[in-house]
Amino acid sequence: MRKPFVAGNWKMNKTVKESLALVRDLLPGMEAVTGVEKVLCPPFPSLFAVSTLISGLDIGLGAQNMHWEASGAYTGEVSANMIKELCQYVIIGHSERRQYFAETDQTVNRKVKAALSAELIPIVCVGETLEQKQAGQTAGVVIRQVRDGLQGLTSVEASRIVIAYEPVWAIGTGLASGGQDANDVVKDMIRPTLASLFGENIAQAVRVLYGGSVTGKNAAEFFNQSDIDGALVGGASLKVDDFLQIIKAALK
Ligand code: 13P
Fold it and tell me: Which of 10, 233, 239, 246 has most ligand 1 atoms within 8 Å of CB, for mutation?
């Protein structure tokens, strides 16, 4: 049984004060839902403040990125150990990081390993662009991202990760993937790749989320699929009613 998982990726939104206000509004509704792993991923400056607000509650905290080195002269970067004092999760290889900050499968792999060494749970993002989809390259791209991003992990390490399938063309566009189409990618590309790397048991145990224009209205379409275990939510995670509706829908 894979426990349903819903994470809100706030991206570069919300000051510390605004973050606290949003979390205060979300808390009663989030606390009311049990049986779903619920995670908030605010920007770095808000992590400490949000961690104090949700301390002791059944709500997880995640960062949106990290560096693979443990410490040193890397101006502007943040290490796994720094995140670990506040968070349980870290998003790695989001398509916006790949697109605007030159992240590759190789840097994703280094980050995933560093996160796991610090006992953080990496939420590893994969997904094809519109051009790749139109060129019929979805399988090739997604399989490569999973294989190279997770290269060298032990089976035990692999069992701890979460994968988010986020087709780039669906992110922030309002054009979500169809539930069945997203499920096909997870079932026919992502899980078989996990199986070839780590065995069938691990492939069936790893949670795989869908991300890309998920809303309160369409969330159930994804959660009703056989192989989708939750959502990585962008825009709608900043809206109290929408995000709570998505979390409730995850209790399928
Ligand atoms: P949207 O939900 O805004 O499309 O963003 C999805 C996403 O990128 C989550 O990481």
Answer: 233
